[in-house]
Design brief:
- Residues 1-24, 27-32, 36-42 and 248-253 have low confidence and may be disordered.
- The protein is mainly beta.
- Helices cover 6% and strands 43% of the residues.
- The protein is flat.
- It has two domains: 1-133, no CATH class; 135-253, Sandwich (Immunoglobulin-like).
- The strands form four sheets. The chain has a four-stranded mixed sheet. Strands 3-2-5-6 form a four-stranded antiparallel sheet.
Length: 253
C-alpha cells in the first residue's frame, strides 16, 4: 500500500488522515468478497470492478473525481450519488479536486489496492473520505443486508432504530464509523436516528425500502439544525451473489 501526503493551503493538514482512513476502509473488506486472484490463471474471465461515490460534505462544494488521473466525475455536488464507475483493478489512485472558479485544488489523493471483481463505495464527508467494499455474499431469500455509516460530523454518537420492530441497526455510532452489518427481511422501514446519550430523536426517516437479495449502506449525511443541509439518510444499494442451488441469482444492478 502506498500513501501520498500533499499539502494545499489550509486543507493540507487534513489530507494525511483522510487518505489513511479511505485506504484502511478499502483494505478491511468482508471475508465473503470475491478474490479474482484465486481463480485458475489458465481460465480467461471478464471480471468487473467498480465503485459508487456519494458527496456528503456540505462545506466542500463541487468536486472532480479522478481514477489514475482519468477524470470520472465533474461538477459533483453535495448530495449527489454517482452511477457505477469502472475501477482499474490492482493499484488505483483516487484524486479529488475541489472545483473553484478559475482554480481547482486537491483535497484527496491516495493509492491503494482494489482487488478485482469487487464493488466499492466512497463517501466524501467534511473531514474524511469513508470507503469500503459491498459485502455481496449470499443471504437468505427475501432478505436484505444493512449497514449504517455515520457520515455527519455535526452529530454525536447515535442509535439508529427501526421503529416498527424496535430493533437497533446501529448503537453508539460515532462519526465516521460504520455499524456491524445485519440481515433483515426485505420491506419498508421507518427509521429514527436518536442521540445515544439522551435518546432524543435527531432525524425521522419514513419508508426506507429494502429489496430482497440486496446489500445496503445507509449513510447519515447533513448537519443538525441546518436548513440548507438538513440531516438525511442516503441509501447505497447493490445486489448479493446467488445462493447455493440458485443458478440465476439476482440480476446485476
Amino acid at each position: 500500500m502506498t500513501l501520498e501526503r500533499r499539502r494545499y493551503g489550509r486543507r493540507g493538514r487534513g489530507v494525511t488522515l483522510l487518505v489513511i482512513v479511505a485506504a484502511l476502509g478499502l483494505m478491511m473488506v468482508p471475508a465473503g468478497l470475491r478474490q479474482a486472484a484465486a481463480q485458475d490463471s489458465s481460465t480467461s474471465v471478464d471480471v468487473e470492478t467498480r465503485a459508487v461515490f456519494l458527496h456528503a460534505s456540505p462545506d466542500l462544494g463541487e468536486v472532480e473525481v479522478a481514477l489514475n488521473w482519468d477524470t470520472q466525475l465533474e461538477e459533483f455536488g453535495y448530495g449527489d450519488q454517482s452511477d457505477w464507475v469502472d475501477v482499474p483493478p490492482g493499484a488505483v489512485e483516487v484524486t479529488i479536486n475541489a472545483e473553484r472558479r478559475g482554480f481547482n485544488y486537491m483535497v484527496f489523493d491516495a493509492v491503494y489496492p482494489a482487488p478485482a471483481g469487487n464493488d466499492y463505495f466512497m463517501v466524501i464527508t467534511d473531514q474524511l473520505v469513508v470507503g469500503g467494499a459491498f459485502d455481496q455474499s449470499p443471504i437468505p431469500d427475501n432478505s436484505a443486508r444493512v449497514q449504517v455509516v455515520q457520515g455527519s460530523v455535526s452529530l454525536p454518537a447515535v442509535n439508529v432504530v427501526a421503529t416498527g420492530s424496535d430493533v437497533d441497526w446501529a448503537t453508539q455510532l460515532q462519526y465516521p464509523r460504520s455499524s456491524e452489518a445485519t440481515v433483515v427481511p426485505a420491506g419498508s422501514y421507518d427509521l429514527e436516528v436518536r442521540l445515544a446519550d439522551s435518546d432524543e430523536v435527531a432525524l425521522t426517516v419514513p419508508g426506507v425500502a429494502l429489496d430482497g437479495d440486496t446489500v445496503n449502506q445507509l449513510v447519515i449525511i447533513g448537519n443538525a439544525n441546518d436548513e440548507d443541509h438538513p440531516l438525511e439518510i442516503k441509501v447505497l444499494s447493490n445486489t448479493t451473489q446467488p445462493r447455493d442451488g440458485d443458478s440465476e441469482g439476482t440480476p446485476p444492478s
